[in-house]
């Protein structure tokens, strides 16, 4: 199969086993620039494994992943880490903010790691925090903010370095539905304004409702819902 035209990130026939467990069994995926794709499916179906392969964190046993015309498996580990730092952003179920840093320092961190000055990094961080409506929490530490606020800080951090793809694994999984919806609203709005593609893993239909397209994973195989109808 050739990648769909205009696709930014494409996976074909991915297989991954952990010992006797088959996590991916011929999974496929594609996403366009600026598109929000929800990856759905029951627990243990292979959603996180698919996301980790697409992000170059886990190496599949076989199959191909192409990002912007480049084959991930043909890159060195150093090239893949550089790609993750410069082109990808990440949001996980529990924000994974650094507890010792303030919120604004957390958001500024990806830019600081890329060599941006503190002043410039924090200015950019604050402007993303304002978009996510958490700029008033800049000086607080993660332990002093609510779950929903922490996730919005994590979303700001994922966007600060201008990624082309955002990987989000159950970004609202630890939140109640009201907070979850607000986070998804601001998250998808911010990602769309930055023209970032979003790979959104979730098992909740109300979260997937914020996507443009749904892919369902079952027993390590993925199906594009649009191609079923
Ligand atoms: N590091 C690992 N070592 C061993 N087995 C693993 C590992 N990661 C995943 N698996 C197994 O691979 C399968 C797919 O796991 P994965 O985490 O991708 O599922 P998931 O769809 O994300 O589930 P959930 O909704 O519960 O997060 C499961 O059977 C899981 O136990
Ligand atoms: Mg998972």
From TrEMBL:
KW Isomerase (keyword) present: no
Domain ABC transporter: residue ranges: 9-229
PROSITE patterns: ABC_TRANSPORTER_2
Record keywords, A-Z: ATP-binding, Nucleotide-binding, Transport
Signal peptide residue numbers: none
InterPro entries associated with the record: AAA+_ATPase (IPR003593), ABC_transporter-like_ATP-bd (IPR003439), ABC_transpr_LolD-like (IPR015854), MacB-like_ATP-bd (IPR017911), P-loop_NTPase (IPR027417)
Domain of life where this protein originates: Bacteria
Classification via PANTHER family: ABC TRANSPORTER RELATED, IMPORT ATP-BINDING PROTEIN
Protein name from the UniProt record: ABC transporter ATP-binding protein
GO MF annotation: an example: ATP binding
Segments passing through the bilayer: none
Keyword ATP-binding on entry: yes
């Amino acid at each position: 199969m050739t990648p769909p035209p205009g696709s930014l990130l494409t996976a074909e026939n991915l297989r991954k086993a952990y010992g006797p467990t088959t996590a991916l069994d011929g999974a496929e995926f594609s996403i366009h620039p600026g598109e929000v794709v929800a990856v759905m499916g029951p627990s243990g179906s292979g959603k996180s494994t698919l996301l980790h392969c697409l992000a170059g964190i886990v190496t599949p046993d076989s199959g191909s992943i192409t990002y912007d015309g480049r084959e991930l498996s043909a890159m060195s580990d150093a090239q893949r880490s550089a790609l993750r730092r410069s082109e990808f952003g990440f949001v996980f179920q529990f924000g994974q903010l650094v507890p010792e840093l303030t919120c604004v320092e957390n958001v500024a961190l990806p830019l600081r790691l890329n060599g941006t000055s503190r002043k410039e990094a924090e200015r950019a961080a604050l402007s993303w925090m304002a978009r996510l409506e958490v700029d008033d929490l800049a000086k607080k530490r993660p332990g002093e903010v609510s779950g929903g606020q922490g996730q919005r800080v994590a979303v700001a951090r994922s966007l600060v370095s201008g990624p082309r793809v955002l990987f989000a694994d159950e970004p609202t999984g630890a939140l109640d539905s009201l907070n979850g919806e607000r986070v998804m609203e601001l998250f998808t709005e911010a990602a769309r304004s930055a023209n970032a593609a979003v790979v959104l893993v979730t098992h909740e239909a109300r979260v997937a409702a914020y996507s443009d397209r749904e892919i369902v994973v079952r027993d390590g195989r993925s199906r594009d819902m649009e191609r079923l109808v």
